[in-house]
## 1
Amino acid sequence: MSTNLIDSTTLFLEGNTEFYVPKNSLTQIPPPRTPVFFNTMAKFKRDLLISIFNSHASQSGHKLTFSDTLSGVGATGIRLANESEYVKKIYFNDANINASELLQTSITHNNLDSTTEVSINEAHKFLSNFTNRDVRFDFIDLDPFGSPIQYVDSAVRALKINGVLSLTATDGAVLCGVYPKVCLRKYGSLSLNTEYFNETALRILIFSLASISSHYELGIKPLFCHTDKHYIQAYVQITDSISDTENRIGFIGHCSTCQNRVISELPILSCNLCSSNNKIAGPLWIGDIFDKSFLNIAINNTDDSNLVKLYRNAISESSLPPLYYVTDTISQNLKISSFPVETILSKLKENNFLSSKTILHSTGFRTDANVEEINSILSKTSTSNI
């Protein structure tokens, strides 16, 4: 490693692993891209990826290959190589030569040379080296600046059947409805700005993957999805059955008058409750975004209490309809004081409706009740509390 790069870096401990990072990434917000990008705030995301990787590997019965496609300092791959018992080989790639120097130093520090390989290449060219059936990856992570969609076709061709693709998008304004025309251009879908914006964003991201995969007669199976303030993430298994995608592409119809929302394979232009015009989002994924059986495996493969709680909450909402509700939004529309989520869930249960919290919003919930039924229950509850 060059003297200038050595002077600008420091050893950093995350999880059970030490690796080298630029000093300025620990002091500047947001962290700079030079000499190499590293974000300390993404620790939970890396914890989650390691857990998902281990859970997928435990099902396969053998060690797996992993592509840290846009690796930066290589935090994800270094931690995975050092902390997982299921790693066969980690392939790092970044076009930044400083990244490769820093990576190699971290690899040597952790004695990981035998299970790692470092490449300096543009991501498409790197992935194109692994399209032959016998060298494809078991697990690919795509975590770029902005949208991952430009790399998805290359990743699908470099992934084994039943392999897992981790997609991270940080262009939230595009996916969440601030720039719907840009979303249509980039993802082939119109976005919509509603209180459940991040779920719409996830479903658009998954749809784009499904659309690209279908070019190769491949299907998809979402395992787990997650959002945070600055990113949207989906873990999706690529299958050899296009039927896994059929009947799972459709549209959202959202009524801005009464806030009713519907999911359907074809656009529904008018509200079935108040007959007002619906705003339309899509096409997008209308199938499941959590795989209950996989999450049960994930729970058994981690001792991280935060991840276990996250998985259990996802399981509880996995069988409920798409498009969650937010307590504050409902209360504002009804002009009543906001209720805690637990109170709303209790009242819905009393009225024989299914409901659950959602991991996608701190004050959100899912239910099989429609907005008219929710409003009626909360209005009566508010009146009885006066």
## 2
Amino acid sequence: MSHQSYDDMSPGSQVQEEDRKFNTMKRIVTTIMVFIIILALGAIIFLVLSNEKMTENASEELASIVIEDDREVLSLVDELIDIPSDAEAREPIIKKPVSDPDPIVDTPEVKERPTTAETETSTEPIETESEDIVSEGDTGAEATEISSIPVAFTPYTVAPGDTINKIATSFGLQPETIIGVNDITDIDDINAGMLLDIPDRDGQIYKVKEGDNLSMIAYSFGMGYVTLAEVNGLKSSLIRIGQRLFIPNRTISTEDYQIVMNTFFTSPAQGTIAHKYNTSVEDIITGKMQITDGIYIKNDLGTIVSAASTGTVIAVENNQSDLGRYIIIDHDNGYQTVYGHLDKLYVEVGISVEQGDEIGSMGNTGRILESMLFFKITKDGISIDPKEFF
């Protein structure tokens, strides 16, 4: 009996055919998987790029909204500061788009008189706003009573016989303007030949301090920052420490003016000076010599004693071992006055008095034998020679 053998791996056999089909199917599946992976990676990359672009667009849109809101707030603030009356005409507010978010423009200063040292002005800029200021007025409501025309100064040489009042009258200004613009601290410093700057309108000078910005300065003087910039000829809102800004329609206080003019305090009583400031006076009880921190005005018993300046009575006391009956009046700028050895008292604590009001009469109460008035002026608690004021 004969047997026939079969080779399953021979060409054309069934096993070989099945193996070929399996390999073909494996390659197809592998190709499909690679294609799917490529598609997935492409989708992921697309989503990431799209998300970044959307985030960037959202950030730009948010920043634009914030900037616009900031402009609206600044506009409302300036409108609150300079709200014109119903009868006054209001100029339209024109908004100008920001072309340069961080302008760096040199800010011209108010004209300095030749005698003023340039060392007073620092070169360090203070950026106050990011927008350029245009002459038309881009934001904020302007006070219609304040002219926005740039201030002009005229140099004037003091002539013999000139006074502050005479100079001010000749230019149609208040004397406070002449004093404030030229930094005059004592009327006795005005001499023939001195050069003064005379502005074309009433106002005063403000020197920029550290931490200041244009809006804050304008607000403190009750005006819009655009007007303040235009008056001073500023091309941008950058200002420098020590820079001099002209403040229109605002002058130094009456008290400061009186101090400069040596009229802040007047003599509280008629009589002769028995003891000057910072001189030795004998103590009637101990017999020792003491340095006086005031002056003694001698006159008859009952001589009227008046307030040397406007203020508020803060003390009415009777100390027979010292000043006897005395009064203390508080004034502006840290000044106080003391009136001692009075015979009668005409005021009470808390009463406001004007310069020249009668507050008592001269006497000899306390540690004194004759009828005299002890008068003292203090500044922030430190005594000052009264002769500097009258």
## 3
Amino acid sequence: MKKISSGKVRDIYEVSENSLMIVVSDRISAFDVIMNDLIPNKGKLLNQLSEFWFDYIKDIVPNHIITTNFDEFPSEFRAEEFRGRGMLVRKLKMLPVECIVRGYITGSGWASYQKTGKVCGIELPTGLRESQKLGAPLFTPSTKAELGDHDENISFEKAAELLGSDLAEKVKSKTIEIYTKCADYALTKGIIIADTKFEFGLDENGELVLGDEVLTPDSSRFWPADKFEVGRSQDSFDKQPLRDWLSANDYKDKAPVHLPQKVIDFTLNKYVEAYEKLTGKNL
């Protein structure tokens, strides 16, 4: 099969004129750098968590999945290495904008607010504290960077220039609606979704379709609700522990030869815990 893309985590193969196979690897990246070590079974966790969310929000927006059933995969992908980590999907014309939504002020948003009182050009009330819940979720789009480059935050007005005003408004509305429904659900499972990003495309009829991944620890900040405290950075179920170790050891722009086993194990355990809490299933 023709491999048409190999990203930080996902490999994409062309199956037919109208369909693709997405395979989720065990690779992990941080600060836009792919690590040399794999996180065992991470790809299965991400793939099956996305599948869970795609199904949960199918009433809000259609998605790109044709099947996640291993027995219905093209014969080339009916090998055990692909079980649980593949999706046969519709080809879409992907939009050139990543749809980021922030429910809490943290990370780069918090850094920007401290300097300017704004997040991605959006003026916020004075006196906000780190990790505080925002009055309403913020839609803060970014452009998609090439592999190895950094995404660039853009204003909604710029997104409207790229997409057209009607499509930009629809994408913004759907992004916030999906985030709100899923964040409310996650809270009942003891997880705060602080922020996340979605990717949309258009199908052959020009209809808006949700693609890529949905609400995984790679694309979101998950915090344990029982440890949440405004005014500080939070514990997390995502790859923040990996980022913290890299930062502490001067690896923000490069990968170490190997990650310590304890960092690999701790990161995997966080992914497993988030998956099991949200889906109620064991991997």
